[in-house]
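Team,

Forwarding the record for the chain on the shared tracking sheet. I've put the sequence and predicted structure together so nobody has to dig through attachments.
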Amino acid sequence: MGTITKQDLESVIKDTFSELYKISIEKSNSRLIFPKYRTEKTRISEQELRFLFIEKLKPILEKNDCYYSIETPTEDIYKFSEGKKPQKPKRLPKDTNTEETMGYQSAAFDLVIHCNNIDKNEERVAIIEFKTKGNMHEYAKDICKLGNKNEGGESTLRYFIIVVNKIAYSKKEKKDTKQSLKERFSFENKQIDFEEFKEDAEINVICYSLEEGKGNGNGKIVDIVPDKPDNTKLNLHSITF
């Protein structure tokens, strides 16, 4: 068996973004299309993003004799709410005393890539979460899972892949989409316990806007990771091709 490199994954991400853009302007040979709401507005969801990513990933998996799993259960246990009320994400090792685990349960990753031995956690080559929308709490949950060093090994690659339709200004929120997304990774996000996560593994964050850069025949990568010092307690790395 081979393995999947960072270069391999980022090539797949670029190809996925490029194909998404072609689909959005109806110039793609893919059999995947974006459905429309009854208002005729196009719906772009995490499902299209994930399915297209897997389609682009498969040749590399076959070449290296690797595998993938979807909605993959976590190793550790997590608590994201108290009853029906969202709370700051918390996590505990899977072997924690049962008296301390009330309200905790396994979570799941959108996609995990396995090489060498698909049954071993340390052979999780990459862990990936996809987003096309979501509030601060949803982002906090993914950061809590992705950055957990118990999920995978030292060399496991961790990606948070985000696609938005466009960077639009909201009169109601008095900010644009880019500013709003940045706040999900900054101290403005009160849903994250930065002190608890400061020793976490590095998370590669990449955001793609379908509308931005359209005049150049493609979408555009948008940097949404806050500048330091806001980012000092989260180990986030912005990917810009």
